[in-house]
Every structure is written in structure tokens, then in C-alpha cells.
Automatic annotation (TrEMBL):
InterPro entries from the UniProt entry: Homeodomain-like_sf, InsJ-like_HTH, WH-like_DNA-bd_sf
Source organism: Streptococcus acidominimus
Lineage: Bacteria, Bacillati, Bacillota, Bacilli, Lactobacillales
Protein name: IS3 family transposase
Top-level taxon of origin: Bacteria
Residues annotated as domain Insertion element IS150 protein InsJ-like helix-turn-helix: 1-48
Stored Pfam families: HTH_28 (PF13518)
């Protein structure tokens, strides 16, 4: 919600800070992670060891990659729409 708000308001971090009561660094970090990796980038991975990564088949890895690219595409379409305004 905070990331969507910030992006929708042309990355007005100050407005997000005031509205949601979070730090600038936290908002900036979330927006950057979302831009780089979509919603997958916002998943909390703290405490996960190297062994916790599931062994995926090649087909499963490709499906995951497709999903990530579709999320990235949706984000870029949203950003493009905002920039056209």
C-alpha cells in the first residue's frame, strides 16, 4: 500500500512518510525493491538459510520467471500510465 501510494504520487516520499508514519529510508527501500523485483522484492526473507531455497525443476523455474516478468510488466505499465498524465 505504501509503495503504491508513493509511486502514484510521483515518488513523493515525504507524503508517504507523513501519511503512514514510516522512515524515508524504509519507503525508499521498499520502492526500490519493488521497482527492481516487483512484489517478490517485498517479501521478507530474513532468517532464511541457503538450504531453504526449494529445488525447482526447469519448468517450475521458467514458470516463476514468467510470473516475475508479468509482475514487472504490470508495474511498468502502471508507471508509464502515471508518467503520461
Amino acid at each position: 500500500e505504501i509503495v503504491t501510494f508513493t509511486i502514484a504520487h510521483e515518488k513523493d516520499y515525504q507524503a508517504a512518510i507523513e501519511k503512514f508514519g514510516v522512515s524515508y529510508q524504509q519507503v525508499y527501500s521498499w520502492v526500490r525493491k519493488f521497482e527492481e523485483s516487483g512484489s517478490q522484492g517485498l517479501i521478507d526473507r530474513r532468517g532464511k538459510g541457503l538450504d531453504s531455497k526449494p529445488n525447482l525443476t526447469e519448468a517450475e523455474e521458467l514458470q516463476l520467471k514468467i510470473k516475475q516478468l508479468e509482475e514487472r510488466n504490470r508495474y511498468l505499465e502502471m508507471e508509464n500510465g502515471l508518467l503520461k498524465k
